[in-house]
Amino acid sequence: MRVVSRSRLLVFLVTAICAHNLAFCLKSSSDPDEPSNSTYHSTVSEVRLVFFATENNRPVQDLQKDDFAVIDDERVIRTFRSFSRTTALKLDLIVLFDSSDSVLPNFKQEMSAVMQLVSEWPRNSEDDLSVLSFSGTETHAVCAGDCRRSLTADQVDSSPKGGTTPLFDALDTATSLLSKRRQPDVLPVIILFSDGDDTVSKDSFGRMLKKTLASEVQVYAVDVNATAPSNGSATLQKVAEDSGGRYFHSGDGATKIFSEVINDLHSERIVTYALPQSSSDFHSVRILPTHNLNLQFRSRRGYYDPSNSTH
User: Where are the alpha helices (DSSP H) in the chain?
Assistant: First the structure.
């Protein structure tokens, strides 16, 4: 008698079980949001959305999952696979500062704010905090790893200065670094200090923003313009708000800015749900209150289909 291999025997047993209880096999692999006549698959792509909830400009501490609904490409999502806070998660944080010609008149104030942010960062001791600068045509590594302990004023002062402003390329570089070392339990964040002007980047604003959204990186932008808001200010605001971060002006004061950033990262929520069907690779996203209309929500404005490997 021919001997049946273990792998073939296992396939036979699984097939026999499914044939005996077809309903169980379908139910275990289905998406609860899909209609009953849908085709079932063994795996379903999942959307992970990081967001903030406030009421009267204060973080909401006791938010429940039935207090909100996600509008994903105009489809209302109320059934979530998970809902949690992010306080136990680690951060992979890059502080990215502009050292080009246009910011040199305010460079000392900018560097003072960067040093204060790094030295006073209160998050998890396992957070990674790196510092990069950009000027000329390049992005420069100032400090990597645990910069809270190792960054010095001399390192900042000795970083390259002057020349043109490769803002979009620098954001692309920082996003690529965060994406390469991305882990499921780590949140990628960029805190950007700049006037928002770009004079030399190879990358376009649109491609940079698309990559930022696809990588789920949150950008907090600190506008170092000394004068009234400019076109560069609008650029910073767009990148920050579309990614789910926030825009600040340096005139708000370093202490207030850092306090609000830290409060944000302590009050973030994460919700996951099954990827809805869409005719587009890009899904627009909004979060709306279901009971308390005073609640306000902030998240990235959309995402690219995670089941599409090109994104």
Answer: 6-20, 22-29, 107-119, 147-150, 153-157, 167-180, 205-214, 231-243, 254-267
